[in-house]
Amino acid sequence: MSLWLFAASAASLLFGAIGLMYWGLWGDRAxxxxxxxxxxxxxxxxxxxxxxxxxxxxxxxxxxxxxRKNHRRWWAMVVGxxxxxxxxxSGHIGRVMWIxxxxxxxxxxxxxxxxxxxxxxxMIEQLGRQLNVxxxxxxxxxxxxxxxxxxxxxxxxxxxxxxxLLDLVLxxxxxxxLSWTVRDGRVIISRQEVLRE
Length: 197
Hints:
By secondary structure, the protein is α+β, with helices and mostly antiparallel strands. It folds into two domains: 3-105; 110-195, 3-Layer(bab) Sandwich (Phage tail protein beta-alpha-beta fold), CATH 3.55.50.30. The protein contains seven helices and five strands. The protein has helices at residues 3-26, 44-48, 74-107, 120-131, 139-144, 162-174, 192-195, and strands at 110-119, 135-137, 152-161, 178-183, 186-191. The strands form two sheets. It has a three-stranded mixed beta sheet with strand order 2-5-4. A two-stranded antiparallel ribbon has the order 1-3. A hairpin with a 2-residue loop joins β4 and β5 (186-191). The longest helix has 34 residues, at 74-107. It starts with a helix and ends with a helix.
């Protein structure tokens, strides 16, 4: 599903839930009408005849005030409240998708880099600044395959895409053990097995 279609679906669900709740609470106001508080039968004629008992269902309102109640559909309010939960979650997912899409766009941009005997940790920091993305490295997993923060990295490249550069660096360091992914608006670097979990 495309991002815009997902967002439109989430918004439609949210506004639908709010509309259903509003209809349940205010959709059938009395507006001066006299109605049975149980079956909502028109009681105007009965009231003028001095009767407070509904000829339709037999409900005795007792006092005139009860004939002027708004008709609230509590089931609609309950359903609307329930629908707000998935609507809110869908909105959160849509926001995460939008942020991840922005990160992928930044990674698709081309940059010039010159890393000469630069420590891997510093290279990641510099690369994140150049690409305008946040890069998180799972150092514990990297150290488990023998890759330390201070391992030297040497790359001099022009007009190279950020995602391809990440592939090249990680391939050179680990021979294929390491990989990266975009998650929650960040680039995550770890072992391939961890990222697949």
